[in-house]
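Memo to structure team: turn this sequence into structure tokens by end of day. - J.P.
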Amino acid sequence: MKSAVDPEANQPTSRLLLFVAGDSPNSVAALENLRLAIEDQGAEHFRLEIVDVFVSPDRALADQIIVTPTLLRVAPASSRRLIGDLSARSDLISFIKVQR
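Reply from structure team:
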């Protein structure tokens, strides 16, 4: 349990949405690459939602997703997208990094 004076208790949280197409190879790779990056950066600083476009096509349309996998960062700050299997580790870390 974190105390009220714990400096990490008030760290910003990054909200991420990963849009995938079922168990396609690129979707599986993107999910694994993202999970490793989140663990490396401190999982407690992230809220991740996985959206399968085969199960929730309306959600993909609402968020204007036209290709998978797509990682969408919706918070903090303005929305940003990263497309592909997320194998470019340095780009992925820069994308998800929570400013402390």
